[in-house]
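## retry 2 of 3
previous attempt timed out at serialization; input unchanged, resubmitting
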Amino acid sequence: MRLIEIRLLEGPNVYRLEPVVKIEVAIGRRRTWYGQRSPGRHALVHLGATVPAKAWPLPVDALVGWVRRLRADHGEGRGGVAVHRSSDPGHWLVTYPWTGAERARTIAEAALALAERDVSPGRRIHLTGSQERIVGRWTARIADSRTTPPAWVRDADRRIPVVSITGTNGKSTVTRLITHILKVAGMRVGTTTSDGVLVDERLVEPGDWTGPAGAWQILERSDLDVGVLETARGGIVLRGMGYESNDASVFTNVSSDHLDLQGIHTLPELAEVKATVVRVTREGGWAVLNADDPLVAAMSRRVRANVAMFSLGEGSGGAAAVRRTLAAGGRAYVLRGDWLVEIDASGSGDEPVEHRIVEVDRVPIALGGLARHNVANALAAAGAARGLGITLAQLRDGLTDFQPTSDRSPGRLNLFRVGSRIVIVDFAHNEAGVNAVLDVAEGIAGGAAGRTAPVTAIIGTAGDRPDDTLRGIGRIAAKRAQRVAIKETLKYLRGRSRDSIVGEIMAGVVASGRSATDVPIYDSETAALRAELARNGEGMAKPDSPRVIVLMCHEERDEVFAMLAELGGRPIDISTELTTLIPRLQGRPRR
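## retry succeeded, writing output
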């Protein structure tokens, strides 16, 4: 039995909705996970499921026995010990609630040490003198341990309502959009994002604050009316959520990202971890789920709150989930024709009530419906805002006022005009994100009769993505863009070599039929964008010929914005330039 880690989770997590100690051990020979990202039912691993005692290996049985005995002896609670499987071959996890941090960790260390020495946890078993001395030393250490309580914010101590947002893509946009809706409605809003902590959309603490520390910053303030918390996978896995419950939640989607980290290898496992956010939504609150994502929609069975589904409508695959939700007395937020629509079955009437919220053309981040991922984000934000009591009129005002600018929504579909070229700066960092931003690029590049301008994709991402994700990014860009360039992200190698990241992305490009010699490699985002803007076009194209350039921007966002300003780049005002930006919308009447 080899120890992988002992970790104290200070709030709700994939195993339980309370602080737990997690002891992870490996038994048998060392093996590496290998399987499908979307496995069949026979290969599914439910991380939070408990394994019956008859299936435990003997070393795990001994470990559990000592945990139970030592917790009972030292006031760390009785019962509550559970065993789980990991999809990592041979890995087992023992979890139990804790009340005193140092004491709980020492109990875990003692239980592991005693189980490894084959000391029986049975109270009636006669121990040798040597074994009794070992038990005595650990008993003394446990007794002398401090008992610092968990740092999570209990409901009794929470002063303001909270909405939490999770998912693979769209978290930051939905978080910023909900914040804006609430602010326009007259509330004072505290927000956590991967960009920092904000108060009324003003950055007060830069950095990635999507874990429990960010939540504590907001929940400990006394000058706010509501908290809007972006909640990432990493915080849940490494520390647990920082608070007991929320009043509303959003689960945007699940796609391949941050896999092969902390024992999470498949999409169902990733969905299960992220679902912690909606599982803690209180009774009477609202959990807003993506009906078009089967893994997300399935989480409706695991929540105690009211359920609202959002869907892009017919053909998107979520119709059945929407019907079930409405039949159960929930809500739905759907795209119907050119309108965002709320369908509410939560009242006392026999039939659901439909409300038109706003036309798609009036929602700037939707780009006239071209940015379908942002239509979905707007529907998700609408469900959360309504779950917090916002009126339809206030919702409409917030949705129509929110612009995807570099200050209000930095790095999320920010559009600039540099001469006759359009630059799209976006945080896309996985396959789904690249597809979404290229949908927009192709729509901008195409006129009524087809594509009129080539698309250049400048791609690259952080090193903590598995090989298949890196190759997938390269493959998608090569298939959809007329020109591909690779930019390095040297601040985010995260354990990989730079050659490894570039090599895997390039492998995806080559697999799509492109030659590696046609793909330039730049050592930074600013260098890549400057060089691609300076190109004179393709073939017989004239200098400054129309082009759409997409930059996957992660580490030099401020520098990229400054460089665009230096080159005469102008942010595009979606509210006034939509039809000139997207030629195919020119014939559509504006409302």
